[in-house]
Amino acid sequence: MWIIRGLKKGIITTPFPKKDDEYIPKSYYPDSLKNCTVFTDIHNFSCMGCGLCKSDMVRREDHVEVRKTLSIKKSVHIFVLDVGSCGACNREISLLGAPQYDFHRLGFFTTPTPKHADVLMVVGELTDDMLPILRESYELMPEPKAVLAVGACASGIYLKRIEKEIPVYARVSGCPPQPKYILKALLQLTGRWNE
Amino acid sequence: MIMDNYTGEVLVAVFKEKAGYSAVWVDYDTGKIKIDNVGEDKLGDRPITAAFFNNYNIDTRSLPPCAKILTYGPAAGGIGEAGAFRLATCGERILSLVPYRGFKKNRSMLKMTKDMDVSRALPYFSRLSGQFAASYTTLFINLAFDDLDESFRTLSFAAVEMERIHNHVWVMHKLANDAAQKVASAHLSALTEEFLRLNSIVFGSRYLMDYPILYKKYDGFHDRLKELESEFNGLIDELLHSRIFIDRLHTTGKLNSEDVIKNDITGIPARAAAVSRDSRKFSVLKDFYGDHEPRMEEGGDALSRFLVRVSEVKDSISLLKEITLPNKIRVPEKPSNGLRYGLIEAPPGDIFMMVHVEDGKLKSVKIRPPSVVMLHAFSIGVRGNVFTDYPFALDSFGLYFADADLYGGW
Ligand code: SF4
Ligand code: SF4
Description:
The structure holds 2 protein chains of 2 kinds. Chain A is an alpha/beta fold. Chain A has helices at 2-9, 88-94, 131-140, 151-157, 159-163, 179-189, and strands at 27-30, 57-60, 64-66, 76-82, 108-110, 119-123, 146-150, 170-172. Chain A has a domain at 65-189: Rossmann fold (3-Layer(aba) Sandwich). Chain A is built from 6 helices and 8 strands, in the order αββββαββαβααβα. Chain B has 2 domains: 9-100, no CATH class; 111-409, Cytochrome-c3 Hydrogenase, chain B, CATH 1.10.645.10. Chain B has 14 helices and 10 strands. The radius of gyration of chain B is 21 Å and the shape is globular. The chains are: A alpha/beta, B alpha+beta. At the A-B interface, helix 1 and helix 2 of A face helix 2, helix 5 and helix 7 of B. Residues 30, 33, 36-39, 42, 47-53, 55 of chain A line the site of one iron/sulfur cluster.
């Protein structure tokens, strides 16, 4: 019966990254960061899209920045480390496995141990209690390895604190970032993104 | 026996004060909330105080010689968050388990609201817990502002019910995954994603953060909701025909009604053990629930909690189909004055919040997140289970360390 149900539904996996997928609603961001009432040093990666600044809120893509790529030919194993999140970034990462995104088709898999990981995905505000775990997780990863900071906490507001401990290769904005753009960041980070 | 006439006050929270403690008691039959100033000795031997003081210990004196004690987390696979447990096991049997909270306690979201203008605090309350953003936001606004109009209240109600749905469906996805029902699990994660997209279209945020600011009327809301309802009903009918799924949940992580009453458990685990504790009847949104009857089951196990969730999703969809979303809303602006407190029924159980506003500024905030109670309930329910039952038991409570670690306030 499950098979019939699946067949009836047809393909629901996004055509992204081959084509853009307009069906996925984008997140709101302010059209200007000038009037931010939350942060004094606001930038694209720390904006939470809260709308408190009363700027016009427009739907747009989450920002992705890749400073250094990870050259890797095989499938990519990802260790997700929550260093103090509200839980929403975690769910968005889990949803990369949902049929709409199915990141396995693009060669990405999560692993429960940093010892098997190529990419460390960091989410949340780095708390004192998670600091030694962040360091240890990074140290346990085999070379070559890379760190992707996910969401406004890890990639913007608290990025400096994380960067004091480990090098960050790439980041994606959003509070939380959409799965589609986490996927885009992974593809760019691993050199698999074709514009 | 359904204990819908159970009377008695539930100890909902204990907060440290400058001198002594304040204990919050709720009578779930009448909705009466009582706050006492007490010394620690006056709390008697209510086991839930271990959750409020976060002073859990495994009692090693009662363990057999084969017992081994281990810590699981905070980065271990399966928990999915920065949280941990201490366990005592003998072979594969879990003899005792206690939550090991605090890895997220230094998150600054709540602390940053200290002395803040209430009008600026909304994004912080939206981010105490991403999964329960609508519930925290709504409760905060109800306590900290005075000028809530009908359109805003209708929108809040819709946001809170959409939150219940996406959380319950996600819990179902996780349980199906634990039971190796990969196809069902994939369908349920796809359905979660569709609910989140609908949230984004209507409320401006997939997790309903800042929904009062980002809301834009979407005319297709009811039509899309009906499509998702039919998808949900079909999936659940199918899943409930799976013997493997039912068997894995049946008798797992069981709390009976005595456990619930003795441990001051509220929310889904209470209702799944036939104890009628549901704050919707007297919460800040009580007007929308009318003569709402809590959905209850009698088994007290992971299966009963699953079934309560199924009924609640159906109820939420029915309620949402009845309301008309406002064309526009006015975000409340007039701060309240003085100390206010109240509850809201978040997806796993209620949130208690106490807010003190003076001259438009926050003077103190206290919260008792539902996940604190859920962690306590899990620690009781999982005792005696084998290790392979652990994920089913854990996931059936729908709890998060993110909000549990923020218990207390400033
Ligand atoms: S949306 Fe929020 S975080 Fe972003 S600029 Fe406006 S006020 Fe600042
Ligand atoms: S970036 Fe936003 S969604 Fe992600 S953990 Fe931080 S507050 Fe939560």
